[in-house]
Amino acid sequence: MVIESLINPFRAEEHPVRMFFVGLLYSTVAVFLSLWIFREESSMVMVFLATMAALPLIYNTIKFEEKKDVSSLTEQTLLKEHGKALSFFLWLFIGSTIGFALWYVVLPTESIGYLFESQIDTITDINSHVTGFSIQSLSIFKTILFNNFKVLIFCILFSFLYGVGSIFILTWNASVIGAAIGNTIRTEIFKLTDAAGLTSIAAYSHIISYGVFRYAIHGIPEILSYFVAGLAGGIISIAAIRHDFGTKSYEKILMDSSILILLSIFLVIFSAFLEVYVTPQIIYSIYSF
Fold first, then answer.
1. Better-scored residue on pLDDT, 244 or 278
2. What are phi and psi of 6, to 5 degrees?
3. 130 alpha-carbon distance from chain centroid
4. Where are the domains of the chain?
5. What's the CA gap between 92 and 15, in Å, rounded?
6. pLDDT tens-place string over residues 19-34
7. Predicted confidence (pLDDT) per residue in 146-160, tens digit
């Protein structure tokens, strides 16, 4: 009851940036507890522990957002209010991702093999489907868009069935992206030290910024789309328990959730476009020297 009680929805929405450090804490505690107690199965246990820490906060926030839906607020105002929750959700995710990436970089290779085994398998599988296509191939765009839509559907479905079920999928994605960022940074550091020995702080900063920036451009709108979808599904789930079907309040909730789902679909398409056509060009132009 200690970790999950550090912050409540009111304070989180008032100071969303603080959730970065909360996410960093959740991921760090999950990393070391899973390695210490469940070393052989730590790659999945880590995700479950980070999810468990976030569950009370996410659940209470979605209940809070559902109450806003049955108030007299206009749709435009509701979207602004939901934006507060989505802002701290995003900072929580970024903090968790950076936490996973940090420990991927600094922990010994043996520990990484246990801790990120499933995540590394997922990254390898994703890369195997992309290999062989040109950078601006329509096939890559279709593949990425299809995969992102599957995650989006799972977020809505899990949130509807379990209330805050999508937080597990999002924490899993944070661990996968964190592993990808950590692997990029770790690989580039090894290359640099092999070629030039000890390097300057500027060189390490260059590598770290490259590792983060490579995934942040398209990753932020993509993850935001999943949070929007998860919020929509969670609101419908809680409303289904607390209100009768067919009432005016429930109709308003369905309208609000439908708008959120449409927004999440737009963000998924936009993030896939960025990932295929924009991110590679920006990364090449900035870090090719």
1. 278
2. -65, -30
3. 21
4. 3-287
5. 12
6. 899 999 999 999 999 9
7. 888 988 998 888 888
